[in-house]
């Protein structure tokens, strides 16, 4: 069994973070560590997490943003694989086991994401989100670049070695930092999708505002075009190939 480091970045979300930790402790896959990176919380997050004792590693740092918190977790991780669980998200009990089984069956897989549920403040499932399955690395690159689907951070499982090629999260991005990261990962890895929901994305008053922030960062697009070596003609070709529903990928 390969060890997984589950990283939970948090900021002033004590109650949510406790539930996130509980969802990881309930995993059927047991070879993991939990690293909670408290990004300068001023609430009772630290006190609430004391209930878990040595079941988690708690790291407190000055508020630097979500990218810096994830990077701190990666740098302290001892596992061969990295999983992220945002503090207001939750894992379904068999998430890690199913993902590790998938990787065992697909030994070339280094970068794996899955479907997930949207859950409202009452704990009710409101929608099943189904990111595309892309059979080609170029298809994944295009679909991510064109924002044809979103990879939810809390569905991801990837080899820690991926960050040596793709780099860490860009700490100047407080929004769309995950989009930037997936685009860079897709430059080196195909990316696989496990087509079943394995995580829950909880929608609440604190995170709804971020959904409407359209900071798609022209800089991210420009950097990606350089990284991929794409021009306008190439993008038009990719639009013809992958812009509509194709046999090689599933529109969701």
Automatic annotation (TrEMBL):
Gene3D superfamilies: Spore Coat Polysaccharide Biosynthesis Protein SpsA, Chain A (3.90.550.10). It comes from the Bacteria. Residues 5-143 form the Glycosyltransferase 2-like domain. Pfam families: Glycos_transf_2. Belongs to the glycosyltransferase 2 family. This is Glycosyltransferase family 2 protein. It comes from Sporolactobacillus kofuensis.
């Amino acid at each position: 069994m390969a060890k997984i480091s589950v990283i939970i970045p948090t900021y002033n979300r004590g109650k949510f973070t406790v539930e996130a930790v509980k969802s990881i402790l309930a995993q059927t896959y047991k070879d993991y560590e939990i690293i909670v990176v408290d990004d300068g919380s001023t609430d009772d997050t630290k006190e609430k997490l004391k209930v878990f004792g040595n079941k988690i590693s708690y790291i407190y740092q000055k508020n630097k943003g979500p990218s810096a918190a994830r990077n701190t977790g990666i740098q302290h991780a001892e596992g061969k694989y990295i999983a992220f669980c945002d503090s207001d998200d939750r894992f379904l009990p068999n998430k890690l086991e199913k993902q590790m089984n998938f990787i065992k069956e697909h030994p070339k897989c280094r970068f794996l994401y899955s479907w997930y549920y949207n859950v409202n403040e009452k704990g009710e499932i409101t929608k099943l989100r189904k990111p595309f399955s892309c059979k080609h690395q170029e298809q994944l690159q295009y679909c991510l670049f064109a924002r044809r689907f979103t990879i939810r951070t809390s569905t991801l499982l990837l080899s820690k070695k991926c960050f040596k090629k793709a780099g860490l999260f860009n700490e100047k991005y407080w929004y769309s930092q995950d989009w930037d990261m997936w685009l860079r990962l897709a430059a080196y890895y195909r990316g696989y999708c496990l087509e079943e929901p394995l995580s829950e994305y909880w929608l609440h008053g604190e995170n709804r505002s971020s959904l409407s922030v359209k900071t798609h960062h022209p800089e991210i697009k420009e950097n990606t075009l350089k990284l991929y070596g794409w021009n306008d003609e190439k993008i038009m070709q990719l639009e013809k190939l992958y812009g509509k529903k194709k046999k090689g990928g599933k529109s969701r």
